[in-house]
Amino acid sequence: PPPKNTWRLTRALATASLRRGQKHILH
What is the DSSP string of 1-16? Predict the structure, then answer.
């Protein structure tokens, strides 16, 4: 898949993690 797709997917996963309260995963 194109890099944009990967970036979007990663961001979506990061957002989901943030929603769960796992900020340490993103930062």
Answer: --HHHHHHHHHHHHHH
